[in-house]
Write a structure and sequence with these properties.
heterodimer, A: 6 helices, about 40% strand, B: alpha+beta, four-stranded parallel β-sheet
Chain lengths: ~290, ~850
C-alpha cells in the first residue's frame, strides 16, 4: 500500500515570540515494513534554522531555531510511504507470556529495539496496580503472549468509550482508566501500563491511519489526526507486533508509523522552548490518502 | 594563688579525661570508632583526648562555641527537601548541626579507603563509557541490559556521545561493619553533594582547635579542591576557561553549598536561565552580552539538563545542551547520564565487572546485594527473604520510599504482597544484607555518647588520575541503627581527620607565585546577578525610606510641645503618606502608634520596612556567593529588629526601633561603599539604591513642599531627606520653600538630593559595558543624560508638583530601561507540546 500523507500544524501566538527552539518528530520512520519514498517539512517563518537527525529510538527529528520575532509557526509535513508488513503470526503459536517476560529480562542489548528498553515505567506510563490487575485477567498462566495481548486489546476496545472531549494530552492514565474513556493516546498508555505491569516489553507508537476506508468498511476512529497504538515484543522469533487498542486491530498495512518510544513524551511531535509571553493556539490538519 | 595553667596537673587532666569518657560504652554488636569492647581507647584518639583534657569544661565549651559561631557567621545552612517556600527562599533553611567531635582515622587505614574509592571511581567511569559506548559488557552477558534500562538516569539521547556519563567527581557512602571493615553502601555519581560541607566543617573545627591540626598532623583538604579544579580546567578547550556551576537554584536543599563552592573555587554560579545556546555553543547571558561557557559543573540531575532532548518539562536546564555536548563545544561534568551507575541494581554485579573491566578485585566490598530481575538471585532472595532488606532497584521520584527496609519489619500481609511482587516484577527490587554501622562519639548533654554514622568520601578526576579527598562528610544518626542517614532534621555531621605520621604541608587554592596574572576586575556579571543586586539596592533603600517616615512621624509625636506652624498638619501628612506608601492600612480610626507598628513589622503591608527587608533578603539569597559574611550578619540584625509581633508599647519605643534599624542599614551602606570592589556588581547595587532614593525623594517633595506648605511640613521634608544639618549650616533663617527645594531636589553636593542621585546614575551607567561599539548611547544611558541635563538646568523657583512628578516619572522610565537592557528577559520552557490526537 502506498500513501500520501499531509500534516499541517499551526501554532498562533498571542504576542510575537522573539526566539524559539524546538524539536519536531513528524517525518515518518523507515523500516519495520515501511519504506519512505519521499518526505519533507516546510516551515514558516522560512528563515528558521533547521537540522535533521535521528533520535535514540531511530525516529527522525528536525531541530528548529527561529531567532526573529514571529506570531505564527506553521509546519507542513508531506510524505509518500509504501507499507507492506506481511501477515501477523498465528496468535496461538507465539511463546507463553511468562517465557517472553523472562527472555526480555535476559536481553543482551542496549539497542533501541531491545526489549529491555520497554520493560519499565516511563514518564507518562507509571505502573498502576489496578491496571496491572485488569490486564492480568487476559493473561492466564501459560497463555501464548500474542493471544493474551489480543484479548486485552479487545477488552479495552469493548470496555472503554472513545471520547475526544474527555481527556487531554496531560490527563494521567490513572484517571482515564478509572473513568474508562479517552482517546488513542490514553488507550495505548493504559495497555502499555498493563503489559509492563506483567513484566512484558511494550512500546508506544505514533503515526497515521488511512483516512478513506476500503469499500464497504466503516471509517476508523482517529483517521483524521495523528494516531497512536502499542507495539509488543513477543519473543526473539516473532519480534515486535503492533496492536491498536482504539480499533481492536492488529497493525497491518493501514497504519503508517511516524515514531516509536516508551510513551508519548518520547514521540511528541513538537517539544520546544519559546522566549516570550504565553498564550498559544494550535491547529492540526491531517490527510492520509492511498495512492496505490 | 596558683596560676590556672592550660594543661593543669596530670591528676587534673586524668580526672577530666575520665569525666569525658564516663558512661561511654560501645554498643553491643557494633564497631566503635573511639573505644574497643574492653573499654580501652583506640590510640589514634589519644592526642585529641589529651588536648581536651587540658581544658576545663568551660574552656572546652567555649571552643565548641567558636566552631558554632563560625558556622553561623558564614551562614552555613541546608534545606530540608520539600521545605521550600518560593516567596521566601530562606524560610526552609536550617542552621548547620555540627558535631564537635571529629572522626579520627589513621593514615594507614585511610590508604585502604582512598585506594578503594579511587578504584571504584575508575570502575564506574569505565562502566559508564561502555554503557553509553560499545555496550560490550551487556553484549557479553556480564551485565543485564535491564539492570541499566530501569534507571531514570539512563539517558538514551546520550548514547554514542563522547564523554557521556564521564565522571569528574564521584562519592562513595561508606559504613564500617562490626568486623571493622569499611564497606560501600552507595555510589554518588550524578552530582555528589557534601564536599563543600566537609570543607565548611573543617573551617569551623579549625577555628576551635587550631593546635590540634598541627599536633595530630591532620591532612589538609585544599589540595583536593585544587586537583578537582585542575581536572575541570584540563578538559576545556581554552587556556583560561569560563567554568560555571549550574545550580537548580536557591530552593535546592544544598544551594548554600553550591554558592559556597562557586565562591571558593572561583566558578560562576549560574541557573539554567542564565545559559543560552547560540551557534552550537553555550553562552552565559551577561550585562555585556552573551559570553561563552567552556565547562559546566552541573548540580542538576542529568535528565533536567535539556528540555529539548531530555525531560521536556524541565525548567532548570538549557535547551540544546545535549547538542552542544555532541558537538563537543562544551564540557559538562559529570557527563550527562552519569547517574545510571547509582542504581542499586548494579551493586551485586560490581565484583565480577571489576574483574572483567579493570582486572582487579574490589578493595572495598558492599553488603551482599541481589537484583531480583535475575532469576537465580530472585530464587535465593525468596528463600531467605525475611533476613534481608528490600529497596527499589532504581531511583524513584518518591524520596521517602527510597531507603532499604528490613523485610522482617513489615506486617505479614505486606510481606506476602512483596513475595508476589518479586515473582512478577522482581526487576524493580533489590534485596541486600544489612550492615550494622559503626558508632562514633557525639557530644550529648556535655558527655560523649556513641551514635551510628556513615562517611561520604570524594574522588576527583585530575590530570594526574583519581585523587581522593583526605577527609569527608561524616553524617551521624540521632539513634537507632542509622541505616538511613540523610541530612534531615536532627542529623549532625562531623569533620573527618585523617592523621599522618609526618607533618602536613599546607596547601592553599592560590596558584604558584609565578603563575599569577594580575587582575583587577574579575569575570563577568551574569544578567541574573545584576538583576538581583539591582533589586537588593532598591529594597534596602525602600526599607530605609519607610523607616525614615516612621521616625519622622514618631519624632513629631514625642515632641508634643513643638509649636512650629503646621505641626498637626505635618503629622497628618506623614501618617497619610505611610498609608499611601503601602506601609500601613488606611489610617481611619487607627492610632498613630498602631500605624507605625504596621509600617515597621507588618509583612502583609507590602511597603512596610519588614516586607521590604524580606524582599531584600530574598534577592540577596539568590546571589549569596556575592555577599560577604558581614553583610549576612547585618541581615540577621535587621531581621531581629524588624520581626514582630512584638508590638511597641509607646511612641518612644517604636522610635528607638526605627532608629536602630536605620543604623544597621547605614552599616550595610558603609560595607558596600567601603568593602565592595567597584565592579559591575557594585554598580548595579548602587544603581538600584540611587533610583529608589531618587524616586522616594521626589515623592516626599511632592507631599511636603507645595507653595503653601506650612513650615513644619518643610521641616519634615528635611528630616526625611536627612538634610537638617546641611540646611541649618547654610541658612540662618527658618525653613523657606525655595532653599529647601533646591537642597532636596537639585543640589548636586547634597548626597541625599535627587540631583545627586541622577549624577551618580549617570556615572554608573556610563561605566557599564555596551553591546556594540558604534558609539551610540544605549537607552539607559540616553535617559540618564537627559535626566542629568534636566536637573542641572532646573531652578528651584520654577519647581512645582508637575515638574517634580516629571522627574519621578523619568526615573521610573530609567528603571524600566535598565531592566530591559541588562536583565534576563523572561525566557522559559513553553509547553508547546499540546497537540491533537485521535
Amino acid at each position: 500500500m502506498i500513501y500520501d500523507i499531509r500534516n499541517v500544524t499551526t501554532y498562533a501566538y498571542g504576542r510575537p515570540v522573539p526566539f524559539a527552539r524546538c524539536v519536531l518528530r513528524m517525518l515518518p520512520r523507515e523500516g519495520g515494513g515501511q519504506q519512505v519514498l519521499s518526505s519533507q517539512i516546510t516551515v514558516s517563518p522560512r528563515d528558521a534554522e533547521r537540522q535533521d537527525g535521528l533520535c535514540f529510538f531511530g525516529n527522525r527529528t528536525t531541530t528548529l531555531t527561529i531567532a526573529r520575532p514571529h506570531r505564527e509557526l506553521r509546519i507542513e509535513m508531506t510524505a509518500r510511504v509504501a507499507v507492506e508488513r506481511g501477515a501477523a503470526p498465528f496468535p496461538a503459536i507465539t511463546r507463553r507470556w511468562e517465557e517472553v517476560a523472562q527472555l526480555a529480562l535476559a536481553a543482551q542489548s542496549l539497542g533501541a529495539d531491545s526489549p529491555a528498553q520497554q520493560l519499565y515505567p516511563s514518564r507518562l506510563v507509571p505502573l498502576v496496580d489496578e491496571i496491572t490487575a485488569y490486564a492480568s485477567e487476559s493473561f492466564a498462566r501459560g497463555r501464548p503472549v500474542f493471544e493474551a495481548a489480543s484479548a486485552l486489546m479487545a477488552r479495552i476496545r469493548a470496555g472503554f468509550s472513545y471520547d475526544p472531549e474527555a481527556t487531554e494530552v496531560s490527563t494521567p492514565i490513572r484517571e482515564a482508566f478509572a473513568r474508562r474513556h479517552g482517546v488513542c493516546q490514553d488507550f495505548a498508555h493504559i495497555m502499555i501500563a498493563g503489559l509492563r505491569g506483567l513484566g512484558l516489553p511494550a512500546a508506544y507508537v505514533s503515526g497515521y491511519l488511512r483516512t478513506i476506508p476500503p469499500e464497504g468498511q466503516p471509517r476508523l476512529e482517529g483517521a483524521d489526526a495523528t494516531h497512536a497504538w502499542v507495539s509488543l515484543w513477543c519473543g526473539p522469533e516473532t519480534g515486535w507486533i503492533g496492536l491498536d487498542p482504539t480499533n481492536d486491530l492488529i497493525v497491518g498495512d493501514d497504519h503508517i508509523v511516524t515514531a516509536i518510544g516508551r510513551d508519548y513524551a518520547d514521540v511528541s511531535p513538537l517539544d520546544g522552548v519559546l522566549v516570550g509571553p504565553g498564550s498559544q493556539k494550535l491547529d492540526v490538519g491531517v490527510d492520509v490518502v492511498p495512492v496505490a | 594563688m596558683p596560676i590556672q595553667g592550660r594543661s593543669g596537673s596530670a591528676r587534673v587532666r586524668g580526672e577530666r579525661r575520665a569525666a569525658l569518657l564516663a558512661g561511654y560504652r560501645p554498643l553491643a554488636g557494633a564497631h566503635d570508632e573511639l573505644m574497643a569492647p574492653d573499654g580501652s581507647v583506640h590510640p589514634r584518639w589519644e592526642p585529641l583526648l589529651a588536648e581536651w583534657s587540658a581544658l576545663t569544661g568551660e574552656q572546652l565549651h567555649r571552643r565548641f562555641g567558636l566552631a558554632d559561631r563560625h558556622a553561623r557567621d558564614t551562614g552555613v545552612s541546608y534545606r530540608i527537601h520539600g521545605d521550600g517556600d518560593p516567596d521566601d527562599p530562606l524560610a526552609g533553611e536550617r542552621p548547620w548541626p555540627l558535631n564537635h567531635v571529629p572522626l579520627v582515622l589513621t593514615g594507614a587505614e585511610w590508604r585502604t579507603i582512598a585506594a578503594g574509592v579511587a578504584q571504584r571511581a575508575q570502575l564506574l567511569d569505565a562502566l559508564l563509557a561502555d554503557v553509553y559506548g560499545r555496550g560490550s559488557l551487556v553484549a557479553e552477558g556480564l551485565l543485564p541490559a535491564a539492570a541499566i534500562t530501569g534507571s531514570p538516569d539512563y539517558l538514551r539521547p546520550l548514547q554514542g556521545t563522547p564523554g557521556a556519563g564521564r565522571l569528574q567527581l564521584y562519592a562513595a557512602d561508606l559504613g564500617r561493619g562490626p568486623d571493622g571493615r569499611w564497606q560501600v553502601l552507595g555510589d554518588r555519581a550524578q552530582a555528589p553533594s557534601g564536599a563543600g560541607y566537609a570543607l565548611e566543617n573543617r573551617l569551623a573545627m579549625g577555628r576551635a582547635f587550631p593546635d590540634l591540626f598541627r599536633t595530630m598532623n591532620v591532612e589538609r583538604l585544599a589540595g583536593f579542591f585544587q586537583g578537582f579544579r585542575a581536572g575541570l580546567v584540563s578538559r576545556a578547550r581554552r587556556v583560561e576557561p569560563r567554568i560555571c556551576l549550574l545550580t537548580p537554584g536557591p530552593l535546592n536543599e544544598s544551594y548554600f553549598e553550591q554558592a559556597y563552592l562557586a565562591r571558593y573555587l572561583g566558578f560562576l554560579l549560574v541557573e539554567g536561565g542564565d545559559l543560552v545556546m547560540r551557534d552550537g555553543r553555550v553562552h552565559v547571558r551577561t550585562i555585556a552580552g552573551f559570553k561563552r561557557a567552556d565547562v559546566i559543573w552541573r548540580r542538576i540531575d542529568g535528565d533536567f539538563a535539556d528540555p529539548l532532548e531530555l525531560n521536556a518539562r524541565s525548567a532548570l536546564g538549557v535547551a540544546g545542551l545535549v547538542e552542544a555536548v555532541r558537538r563537543e563545544s562544551v564540557v559538562v561534568a559529570n557527563g550527562l547520564g552519569s547517574g545510571v551507575v547509582e542504581a542499586r541494581a548494579l551493586t551485586g554485579f560490581l565484583p565480577r565487572l571489576s574483574r572483567a573491566v579493570i582486572g582487579e578485585e574490589l578493595i572495598l566490598p558492599s553488603p551482599a546485594s541481589f537484583w531480583c530481575g535475575d532469576p537465580q538471585a530472585r530464587a535465593q532472595v525468596l528463600e531467605r527473604l525475611d533476613e534481608l532488606d528490600i529497596a527499589p532497584a532504581f531511583r524513584t521520584t518518591d524520596e521517602a520510599s527510597g531507603e532499604p527496609v528490613p523485610v522482617a519489619s513489615l506486617p505479614a500481609a505486606e510481606r506476602a504482597r512483596l513475595r508476589e511482587t518479586i515473582a512478577r516484577r522482581g526487576l524493580d527490587l533489590v534485596a541486600q544484607e544489612r550492615l550494622r554501622l559503626s558508632t562514633m562519639p557525639v557530644v550529648q548533654d556535655g558527655r560523649l555518647t556513641p551514635r551510628p554514622m556513615t562517611l561520604r568520601v570524594f574522588a576527583a578526576a585530575t590530570p594526574d588520575g583519581w585523587q581522593v579527598m583526605p577527609g569527608g562528610f561524616c553524617r551521624i544518626a540521632e539513634s537507632g541503627d542509622g541505616r538511613a542517614v540523610a541530612m534531615r532534621s536532627g542529623v549532625r555531621s562531623s569533620d573527618v581527620w585523617v592523621t599522618s605520621d609526618q607533618p602536613v604541608e599546607p596547601v592553599t587554592l592560590l596558584p604558584s607565585r609565578d603563575a599569577i596574572a594580575i587582575r583587577r576586575i574579575v569575570g563577568i556579571l551574569p544578567s541574573r546577578a545584576a538583576d538581583n543586586l539591582f533589586w537588593l539596592g532598591r529594597y534596602l533603600e525602600r526599607c530605609e525610606a519607610t523607616l525614615r517616615l516612621v521616625r519622622a512621624l514618631l519624632g513629631r509625636l514625642i515632641n508634643a510641645d513643638d509649636q512650629a506652624p503646621g505641626h498637626a498638619e505635618a503629622i497628618a501628612r506623614l501618617a497619610r503618606l505611610l498609608s499611601a506608601w503601602g506601609a500601613a492600612p488606611a489610617a481611619k480610626g487607627r492610632s498613630i502608634v498602631a500605624q507605625a507598628a504596621s509600617a515597621l513589622y507588618d509583612v502583609e503591608e507590602y511597603g512596610s520596612a519588614a516586607a521590604s527587608l524580606r524582599e531584600a533578603r530574598r534577592t540577596a539569597s539568590v546571589i549569596r556567593e556575592r555577599l560577604s559574611v558581614d553583610a549576612w550578619r547585618l541581615f540577621g540584625d535587621l531581621q531581629r529588629q524588624l520581626s514582630g509581633p512584638r508590638k511597641p508599647s509607646s511612641e518612644g519605643e517604636a522610635f528607638e526601633i526605627a532608629d536602630s534599624a536605620l543604623k544597621s542599614l547605614a552599616a550595610f551602606s558603609g560595607l558596600s561603599q567601603e568593602n565592595m570592589v567597584r565592579g559591575a556588581g557594585w554598580r548595579f547595587l548602587d544603581i538600584g539604591r540611587r533610583l529608589e532614593r531618587g524616586i522616594a525623594t521626589c515623592r516626599f517633595a511632592r507631599h511636603f513642599a507645595e507653595a503653601s506648605a506650612p513650615d513644619n511640613c518643610l521641616d519634615a521634608l528635611l528630616d526625611l531627606t536627612d538634610s537638617q544639618i546641611t540646611y541649618r549650616s547654610r541658612y540662618m533663617v527658618g525653613v523657606e520653600l525655595q532653599p529647601v527645594l533646591d537642597l532636596v531636589m537639585l543640589d548636586p553636593y547634597n548626597p541625599r538630593s535627587v540631583g545627586f542621585q541622577i549624577e551618580r546614575l549617570h556615572a554608573e551607567l556610563a561605566a557599564l559595558p555596551s553591546l556594540s561599539d558604534n558609539g551610540m548611547l544605549e537607552e539607559p544611558q540616553r535617559l540618564a543624560v537627559r535626566l542629568s541635563a534636566e536637573v542641572r538646568t532646573a531652578e528651584a523657583a520654577r519647581l512645582d508638583r508637575a515638574s517634580i512628578l516629571l522627574f519621578e516619572q523619568l526615573l521610573m522610565g530609567l528603571s524600566n530601561a535598565v531592566a530591559e537592557r541588562y536583565f534576563l528577559q523572561n525566557a522559559r520552557p513553553e509547553g508547546a507540546r499540546a497537540t491533537q490526537l485521535a
